[in-house]
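Minutes, methods subgroup
Present: GH (chair), OT, SY

1. OT presented the first of two proteins processed in the latest run. Sequence and structure tokens recorded below as shown on screen.
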Amino acid sequence: MKQIGENIAKLRRANGMTQEQLAEIIGVSAQSVSKWETSTTMPDIMLLPVLADIFGVTVDAMYGRIKTDEGKRAEDVFSETIETLLDGIGGFMGQHSAEEKRKYREALLEDPHLKTGIMNCGEGAVFYCGELGAALLKKQKDGVFASEGTCNVLDMLGDEKFRLLVRHLFEEKYNSMTIGSVAKMLSCETDIAKEYLKALLDWGILESSVLDLGEEKVTVHKLNHFARNKLFMLQVVDAYAREISVTKNHMYCWAG
């Protein structure tokens, strides 16, 4: 399609890239980029998300289409869940009357650092903070702080540039990538980018495929179908690590 070729050329120039520079980031030859831009050939469909992420646009925009809003209301489900959780905690704390419940919710709303929760050593804990959200953790019978599987995750999250990559993935700014495109985005060496991608592949956040373009092959990494679940868990780990390290105890009510 001629429009895609024209858009690649336009976006490349707008980002101050030569055909050689774009080719190096993707992992193809400059000749391939030239053929795309003149519409002699088209980039493989698996490379379109990579190109879109490099240029900071959507794949639909490269086709000239506008993404429509599906109108789903996940926010309503989230709000109702929080209300149910706060009803449970507030009821246990003696916030029974409508006025007491109102004060309880207003206090939590006005101060995002205020915390409330219940800990039962036999069952687990329910924790709520406006800044962090809510967590319900059942008590682990064994293996707490003993699993070797946590070490790699914690070590990787200690790397500032890796956290930046995870944040971009969570915010859906970067859905498909090559080693070169990650290295450019993070301003790091390709060996470092390769290490980051390997960790995300090992954790099942990314999956990879090799595109055979005839004279050359390109490995493309993209988000796994269930990646959002694990990316959210990484966000939780980061948020609560920050809570432990810098935040003072500031409770509206707490039991346990």
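2. SY then presented the second protein from the same run.
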Amino acid sequence: MNSKRVYRQDSSSLRLSSFSVGVKETDLWIAVESKAYHEQLPARVEQFVWRLRIELEDYLSKNSHLASSLEPELVDNEAPRIAQIMARQSNRAGVGFMASVAGAFAEAVGQYLLGYTGEAVVENGGDIFIKVDQPVKVGIYAGKSSLSGKLALQVEPDKTPIGICTSSGTVGPSLSLGKADAAVVVSPSAPLADAAATAMGNMINSDQDFGKALDYARKLEGITGALLVYRDKVAAWGDITLQKAGSCS
């Protein structure tokens, strides 16, 4: 999917200003407080993303097995911080190293932005870091499911910063071994949410798999909620508020 994602166009706010940053495969939609936005900010974020990517790509060039592994992997003490975070959270979720990359970048950029703004939303290919002072809705997009675009998660400010990440076997280029239209995970850690969403998505080949996937989420420390969509069926668990989709705040 390209940077003109429909759900990005649906996100608007008078108090927030948005912009996009793209560096290779990293394709970010970002919203910050309008009073904190200035014309140099996109360039600063782009430079920050370049630094993260160069560090990670250099490490992967020396440890190429990490890029394709579907199992937990260890990294050494020389690994850059983002690689250490990815390994830690992917290992907790029981999936491969790269399963947490989009969430890790979203969170790293979000934390960077909080040096400039009190509120920040960073979306990276459906994986989102959120820190807000007012409630927002996050729409659930689930491919050809009849529920796609009709549901949203309500995010309360006292629950942020938070990560909301989605894996799909029917939408987007990311690898999924399952057939879920959407496996959505909520966690204070965006990279953990990303990795866990991958793990849950891998489990879903029909709605009969909802139970084992939600049991997995319940048992994984650090996960606060999960939502699954398969065709016209939905299941949810945890501290989440599900609403009809509408324009995001």
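Chair's summary of item 2: The domain at 6-244 is CATH 3.10.520.10 (T-fold).
Next meeting: continue with the remaining queue.
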